Amino acid sequence: MQAIQIHPEDNVAVALQTVAKGETVQAGGVSVRAAEEIPRGHKIALRDIPAGSEVIKYGFPIGKTTADVPAGAWVHTHNMKTALSGEKEYEYHPSEPKKKETEKRFFQGYLREDGRAAIRNELWIIPTVGCVNSVAEQLARENQSLVSGSIDGLYTFTHPYGCSQLGDDHANTRRLLAALVRHPNAGGVLVLGLGCENLTPDQFKEELGVWDDRRVKFLVCQDVEDEIAEGRKLLRQLAEYAGGFRRQTLPASMLTVGLKCGGSDGLSGITANPAVGAFSDMLTAQGGTTILTEVPEMFGAEGLLMNRCADEEVFRKAVGMINGFKEYFISHGQVVYENPSPGNKAGGITTLEDKSLGCVQKGGSAPVADVIGYGEAVKKQGLNLLYGPGNDLVSATALTAAGAHLILFTTGRGTPFGAPAPTVKVATNTALYEKKPGWIDFNAGTVAEGESVQRAGERLMDAVLEYAGGRRTDSERKGYRTIAIFKDGVTL
Fold first, then answer.
1. Which residues contact 346 (CB under 8 A, 6 or more apart)?
2. Which among 66, 298, 299, 428 has most CB atoms closer than 10 A?
């Protein structure tokens, strides 16, 4: 199959492989001759589309033509543009997704004393301020001998913030770091401060709330003579506590999985994202939880999510999230459709609507149980929407802070990074899977080769349970662990 018409009403098809000029393409019961070369992942017009007309993909408009587009022509940035604008009003028209019966699944995880599940039993060093990043890195580097028995790793997550911040930026840093300290994958956490920063120890402890002092230790470097020696002593205490946990059989209903895409291409919304959506439906049917973020990449497709909101309260929260993020753009003098990226466009994505309609496929068809803010943890089982940007590192960090045990990251172009939570890279095309075996963990490009989306989702469920049970991702094996914190305002 050379190309696919995703929805019967689409007036474009997507090339599943590069189509040569003059080659005949069959899709949706129509045959057209390619007027020019159509790169893989890009769109070909199935019929004449007059200037100013809507281009339909996924059954929805993804923009308007800027010139007459004849059947067989390449449809991209040179002859179409977005139709998005600023904030808008929404109406709630609830849909009733069908409940899916599914066989109960299990994984080998850790059960924390507070009743939460974990898929890793790691020691984390969390700096509260960038000034102690080097100390944190030295402590992590020099104490790797503590990684033994049931302790899966020792990591630190450095960042440049925690001081010289005001207002929402300061609150975001405090909230995000506290959420990471609470993350169940960390069997023990050393919170490392300097002593004179804006984010004071008392402030941080207030944000953290109740904690177990066997699991969380604090070290203020200015208060001790030798911070390396003191840090080593505290890490040993944390290792002694964390080392008491062992893997045991737990139900998949205890899992929380973040859903993310980056380096997307024209196949993202056809292969990997729908496969992740099928997985999401399977996990939520088990009673588990998934989290979808990247709010700017919902613009143009938000209605699909809003009508699946569990009730009007959740719908109002979703509207607030979407319009709030649009206002964030507008307040900075930016248009809301300043997306997709150059790499996305090279891969075949033309407009933000095009990108968004592919992006939201990761949310499957389950009801939206809740909408949560940046740095907040999920409270309800099922599909959750999370306030956050599209930036890969920022949104993956936010997914981790929200409680994601692991993250499914779909990509058509590839990326090596890893979040604090294990990050499973899902390729949209087989060529990437074969080219970058050190980056990619799962191939969903098989959907373009004839595998059903449902079967790919089932394979992904099997893989997720393996990763939850201790199988390491490519980025984990390389030690790639990064955080990035959302910043908006002034730095003093």
1. 265, 413
2. 428
Instruction: Report CA 144 to chain centroid distance, whole Å.
Output: 29
- Please tell me the predicted confidence (pLDDT) of residue 400: 98
* pLDDT at residue 273, as a whole number: 96
The SS3 call for residue 461 is helix
Indicate the DSSP class of residue 360.
G
**Sign of CA pseudo-dihedral 213, 156, 389, 414:** negative
Which residue, among 471, 454, 360, 355, has the nearest Cα to 406 in the 3D structure?
Answer: 471
Distances (CA, A) of 185 to 141, 282, 440: 20, 23, 22
pLDDT digits (tens, 9 = 90+) for 67-81: 999 999 999 999 999
Q: How many CB atoms lie within 10 A of CB 332?
A: 8
Q: What is residue 1's predicted lDDT score, i.e. its pLDDT? A: 78
Q: What is the pLDDT of residue 335?
A: 75
Written out in words, the top-level CATH class of the domain with range 3-81 is: mainly beta
User: What tokens were used for 295?
Assistant: 């709010």
Alpha-carbon gap, residue 283 to 337, rounded angstroms = 32
> Looking up tokens 């609830």, which residue turns up?
94
The per-residue pLDDT for 446 is: 97
pLDDT at 86: 65
Task: Give the pLDDT of residue 99.
Answer: 64
The contacts found for 469-473 with CB under 8 angstroms, 24 or more apart, are 469/107, 469/108, 469/109, 469/119, 469/247, 470/108, 470/119, 470/152, 470/247, 472/422, 473/406, 473/418, 473/422, 473/423, 473/424, 473/425, 473/441
Give the dihedral of Cα atoms 417, 420, 421, 425; nearest 10 deg. 0
Q: What is the pLDDT of residue 98?
A: 67
| CATH code of domain 122-244 | 3.40.50
d(CA 433, CA 414): 9
Domain assignments of the chain as residue spans, ordered by start: 3-81, 122-244, 250-478
pLDDT at 87: 64
Three-state SS sequence of 169-235 = HHHHHHHHHHHHHCCCCEEEEEEEECCCCCCCHHHHHHHHCCCCCCCEEEEEHHHCCCHHHHHHHHH
The pTM is what? Answer: 0.93
- Other C-beta atoms within 10 Å of 267: how many? 30
Query: What is the separation, in whole angstroms, between the first and last Cα of the chain?
Result: 57
Q: Can you tell me the distance from the alpha carbon of 348 to that of 437, in angstroms, rounded to the nearest whole number?
A: 23
DSSP E strands: which ranges in 394-456?
406-411, 423-427, 442-443
Residues of the chain falling short of pLDDT 50: none
pLDDT at 435: 97
